[in-house]
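Much of the work behind modern protein science is quiet bookkeeping, done one molecule at a time. Below is the pair of lines this work produces for a single protein:

***
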Amino acid sequence: MSEEQSSARVRPGVRAPVGRPLLSLTLTAMMDEVHAHSGGVYLVAPDRPVLEMAVVAGLPRAFAAPWERVALSAPIPVADAVRERRLVWVGGEEEMARRYPRIAVVLPYQFSLAALPVATATRAYGAVFVTWPGGRPPELSEGERAHLTAACDRLAVRLERAAEESLPLPSEPDLLAAPLVSGLADTLGTVEAARMVARLPYGLCSLDLDGRVGFANAAAAHLLDIPVDRLLGAHLWAAVPWLNDPVYEDHYRAALLSQHTTSFVALRPPDEWLSFRMYPSTTGLSVRINRARTAADTNRAARQPGPAPARLVTISQVLSLAGTLTEAVGVQDVVQLVADQILPAVGSQGLVILGSRAGRLLVLGHRGYPDPPVVERYDGMPLSEPTPGGQVLRTGVPAFFESREELERLYPVLIVNPSGFSSWAYLPLIASGRPVGTCVLAYASPHRFTTEERAVLTSLAGLIAQALERALLYDAKHRLAHGLQAALLPHTLPSLTGIEAAARYLPATQGMEIGGDFYDLVPSRGTAAAVIGDVQGHNVTAAGLMGQVRTAVRAYTTVGQPPEEVMSSTNRLLLELGSELFASCLYLRLDPARGRAVMSRAGHPPPLLRRPDGRVRALDLAGGPLLGIDGSATYPATEVDLSPGSLLVLYTDGLVESPGTDFEDAVAGLGRRLTVLGDRPLDVLADALVRHDARPEGRVDDVALLLLRVPAPG
């Protein structure tokens, strides 16, 4: 009896209580009405935006174990149904792989799925999903949609009533097949039926939906070399040690979800090959076991030349790839990881990752092509051109070409300048609901793409797409951030009489945030002013404040303020701006004609002075606190002798600081390098100093360097 029929028996005006099997009855009624073979109900958690699985019917809960609890923001059908308050339909294996790769990776089988919200006009209570085996029509009929929607609406009303009356929903058991029977006669119905099965020359086993053995005849026990009493009640692959392999369990899952007969061959040690054929139904599976062939036949067949079977990616490889892709930062990282991880696993020899910009194809990266121009000629080609890469990127529909003739028949433009490959998989990279690129896998010899392989490859493309989307965003932000940084720094240094200068700036290589390091060199009435500093933080605010500080220092220098007043004025400006950011700064006024420099310091690393004889020392300058902390702070000035041949080195802490290194030791190391290298031309010296900072783990902070030298006479 359906829930609708039972509800009709309640007297008018009397509220039907929320019965114990409410969710189970609703779910099974829905499945009966639309002839689905499995389903489940999720409820929204009371205290957080999470869907929790309440009951499952028709399949073991283990099949949906990765999604026992899912965030409402998760990219899976039930979450989409609740967020968007609509029916979500996935018509088959390839559509699941394209739209929901996380599900397709774990369940790469032939089945269809509908997910619906359980919600009233004011509140969402959860979601329901139902599935059909492969082979059903690719679309839901209007009648099926109406039945499913009406049932979910009725369930929402019942849950709303329970909430209004503060009636808790008791937990309900999952609805699988009937429990295991205790005896052979009970299983088969009659003793004669049991005798008939016992006489069969091949093995027979019955598995329930959980994969446990409910019956095994004597022939099955003999072939498996396991007594019947050890088989009954146990999972087949657990009771038989040499079947304890995820590959064999996967055939059982495939048979249950697709409701299609599946077969496989397994080796019983040491040399006996057995054939297993699984016949699924909605209550379990019947398994027939036969001898497949002799070991000699199997080995001889293995030695015969022929095309190798498709090498599909295992779930463990996919999970490893997913974890690895989370570490990819830029687009080239993604390209390299796909080349290293996926190409060997799927037996492909060539890779191209395509993107688009302004209606044109972009070749983001490629591997395995001995003649790069074959690939790079597509860079900048309009998306409207008849190419498979552009077609897949525009439509989001994968394309598989098992031979060169098939590809060239559909895309004659590719006949010119062929690549040398024989088969191709063009996979759409879809992230956040939109195509972000195309992944092209090329095979050196003709390759047949089975339905299962197409689904797995499309699922992998979903993982690649998410990594590529992050990488494209990273690269765009990286270019924007460091373009802004470069725009705020001097493009060139002015030519000064009596002073040689060189500067370098290196952005951090870890992360994408912009830094606040800056430097400047300002001519002023026969002298010159130099400044270097570091605004706290790594964001656009820090960069903007850095630009204001640099502009302020220039202005105060132009009006002739001495170093200590320039620092005090800049300190007050930061406080007036109210940014709550601090800045370190070193400012000096250079007078090369008199051979001296006057310096003022605000919490900045000490400059290094290299004398003409090669000795280097860190200048112990008086100074004040960081700019932007104390409006009454003073910044005393120190005069330093600059004889001809002297070299001043101004730097930010990114040049010397690194995790696990003492700051004073790092400064001393910089001094030793200056002792050895300090006589080189300034540009050569600047490059050598920042090149020394090229740490293998990357820079965690920006680096600014300003070198000032008083030339020696002659």
Observations:
- The first strand starts at residue 38 and ends at 44.
